[in-house]
């Protein structure tokens, strides 16, 4: 499993939280229901620490989870689980016998009210965030920024409503201090510092080329070389009036040294704006590279599957040097206008006997299917395209090829 180090990190942190809360000594005797409620609340706070940590786009997390799309998948799942734990914690607290509440002070009452506000805030913001496909990207980002508010309420609630003294240097106190501090700073970093500190590659647009009806290729000349592997992507900010300043991810489709190319297809509001209005000499800033597609480390024989704009990571490898290993590409798209780089791929296949390409236009022919496709031994499969396509083809291939190795890049970051 490619995400084993990332999954291990999650298990170790959540497991440590469970054990520390279970074996910690409260400041007063607790009803078993109250103890369980504290443990669940502690797990929720730890879960949200992980949620904010996984949002930081650290290169280490990209490697440990084998791609940012996996990081964000666990980010979403942990957020949902943590929200469920928050709700369960609140329900259990309502059922704690009144005799265990007799020592509550005005401070603990206030922190309890903040805890309830934090709970309602998390419920509202996470439910809205889960409706990402109905939101504009900038609106979705703003909603995520507000997550820091209920998290702050939750931390205050944990420290001043708890019947465990979390301010003491006990194992639980130290663990809570470290995780809440890192969680808070991670959220604050993404809110205030990320876009200024980590976009260290700057440059400008020096070339614009139409690539069919709905796509353009941008040549970017950088002030310094960006080290990247073929198949990786970068987050780009465009500094042009009328364009959203938020960074968006784009695969590197070619180039080297201080010049790279990215290919942008109209898939939403932002890409449509870029397609219609981007200008030569527009300043840009890049963060990256990210992504774990590594064609060099794969076996000698490879199968590539690309959907639409998902062809771009493969192009960076093909344009870098002639391949000397058997590679078969399945390129599926909807309509000839979306078959970007088709001429290049046909020409490459005609001059390199190691490379074979199959074009699947879903308007003119049946959809691509691997229901009964047998993958030869010692062959690795690489997929790149929309998340639904990647899941669909992965399921088909694994149903008939038990020992198959599949690597992928899926387009979905919210």
Largest sheet: 6 strands, antiparallel, barrel
Low-confidence stretches: none
Find the structural class using helix and strand composition.
Answer: alpha/beta
Mean pLDDT: 82
Q: So how many helices?
A: 13
Proportion of β residues? 15-25%
Proportion in helices: 40-55%
Number of strands: 11
Distance between the termini: 23 Å
Note the run of SSEs as H and E. Answer: HHHHHHHHHEEEEEHEEHEHEEHE
Large-scale geometry: elongated
The Cα radius of gyration reads: 25 Å
Short description:
With 414 residues, the protein is an alpha/beta fold.
Structural overview:
The chain has 414 residues and is α/β, with parallel strands linked by helices. The chain contains 13 helices and eleven strands. The strands form two sheets. Strands 1-2-5-4-3-6 form a six-stranded antiparallel beta barrel. Strands 9-8-7-10-11 form a five-stranded parallel sheet. It starts with a helix and ends with a strand. The relative contact order is 0.10. The model has no long low-confidence stretch (mean pLDDT 82).
């Amino acid at each position: 499993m490619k995400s084993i180090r990332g999954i291990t990190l999650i298990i170790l942190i959540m497991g440590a939280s469970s054990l520390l809360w279970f074996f910690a000594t409260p400041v007063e005797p607790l009803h078993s229901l109250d103890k369980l409620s504290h443990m669940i609340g502690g797990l929720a706070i730890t879960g949200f620490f992980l949620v904010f940590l996984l949002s930081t786009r650290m290169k280490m997390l990209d490697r440990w989870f084998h791609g940012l799309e996996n990081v964000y998948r666990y980010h979403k799942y942990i957020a949902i689980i943590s929200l469920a734990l928050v709700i369960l914690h609140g329900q259990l607290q309502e059922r704690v016998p009144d005799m265990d509440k007799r020592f509550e002070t005005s401070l603990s009452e206030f922190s309890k009210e903040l805890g309830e506000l934090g709970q309602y805030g998390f419920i509202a913001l996470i439910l809205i965030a889960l409706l990402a496909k109905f939101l504009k990207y900038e609106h979705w980002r703003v909603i995520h920024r507000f997550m820091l508010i209920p998290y702050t309420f939750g931390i205050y609630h944990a420290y001043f409503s708890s019947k465990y003294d979390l301010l003491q240097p006990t194992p639980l106190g130290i663990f809570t201090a470290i995780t809440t501090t890192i969680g808070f700073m991670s959220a604050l970093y993404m809110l205030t510092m990320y876009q200024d500190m980590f976009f260290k590659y700057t440059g400008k647009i020096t070339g614009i080329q139409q690539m069919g009806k709905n796509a353009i290729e941008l040549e970017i000349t950088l002030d310094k070389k960006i080290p990247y592997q073929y198949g990786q992507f970068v987050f780009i900010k465009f500094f042009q009036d009328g364009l959203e300043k938020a960074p968006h991810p784009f695969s590197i489709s070619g180039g080297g040294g201080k010049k790279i190319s990215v290919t942008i297809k109209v898939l939403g509001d932002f890409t449509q704006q870029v397609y219609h209005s981007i200008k030569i000499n527009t300043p840009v800033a890049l963060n990256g590279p990210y992504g774990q597609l590594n064609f060099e480390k794969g076996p000698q024989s490879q199968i590539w599957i690309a959907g639409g704009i998902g062809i771009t990571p493969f192009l960076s490898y093909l344009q870098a040097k002639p391949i000397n290993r058997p590679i078969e590409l399945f390129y599926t798209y909807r309509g000839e206008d979306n078959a970007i780089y088709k001429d290049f791929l046909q020409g490459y296949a005609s001059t390199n006997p190691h490379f074979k390409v199959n074009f699947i236009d879903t308007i003119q022919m049946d959809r691509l299917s691997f229901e009964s496709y047998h993958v030869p031994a010692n062959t690795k499969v690489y997929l790149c395209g929309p998340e639904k396509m990647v899941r669909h083809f992965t399921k088909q291939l694994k149903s008939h090829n038990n020992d198959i190795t599949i690597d992928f890049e899926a387009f979905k970051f919210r």
